[in-house]
């Protein structure tokens, strides 16, 4: 069986030289004017630890705790030093061994920078804001034969959706109520993140939309989503955020580059065209106009749709033991049996 887990090359697909101007880091990264930075000399260590102070762009940050580690990057929680109000951030530290790795990291930074004025404040309920982290700055340092790219962004609230789905369900739900609650969450997810993807799509394709790269928080009480049985209350509270553009591709060069780029992302959220690309290659994919079009333009749509389906089914099935002897019948039962 072929290993479908994302490889290093999948995380850093090469871009054409026409994209270099778009990816080039600015000499001095701009920052939101509402903040009051405290500048300092950059003495960043090779490894972050709790309490480490980091200078990126026009800001100094203090690392507080590690949020996640991968083979070539790690993300730390931190806070802005010198700000009038405490501002939590996520600090991403990426090791780039090749020029392609560097361009991939800079694309992620450039996308966040492009949309920094439209990114929704995590404490705001303005529905038209983009539900992505807000950009603070990024910097590139030479490290031996490679580069070190560091970027700072706002830390969006909540927990990964896949973690939320593993939590105990609200008590006392019957079958119909479980389905209503699952539908309410799936609808909220699409309504909230759909407009964000629409704004991003002229510039880039995310290519890795799944329940691990979507965070969910409680819009009413803050923190993790409160578990409640009422479908309308659940929908009112659910607040979704899209993170991690580390596998994104430039939408302007993707129509030419897709045959030469590795298939990326979690295969559980792939459309049929991604499997065709993975097992049969670009030549076979190009001969089927519909599959080729899907692969070039619909990866994010499919990823969001499958995540919404996962949210619906997992939410409903989590309380299956309380449905009673009759449970669910007909189309809903067939859907859940197929999902399982």
From TrEMBL:
One of its GO terms (molecular function) is protein serine/threonine kinase activity. The keyword Heme does not apply. Residues 61-340 form the Protein kinase domain. It comes from the Eukaryota. ATP binds at residue 92. Keywords: ATP-binding, Nucleotide-binding. PROSITE patterns: PROTEIN_KINASE_ATP (PS00107), PROTEIN_KINASE_DOM (PS50011). It holds the Pfam family PK_Tyr_Ser-Thr. PANTHER family: INHIBITOR OF NUCLEAR FACTOR KAPPA-B KINASE EPSILON SUBUNIT HOMOLOG 1-RELATED (PTHR24359:SF1), SERINE/THREONINE-PROTEIN KINASE SBK1 (PTHR24359). This is Protein kinase domain-containing protein. It comes from Polarella glacialis (Dinoflagellate).
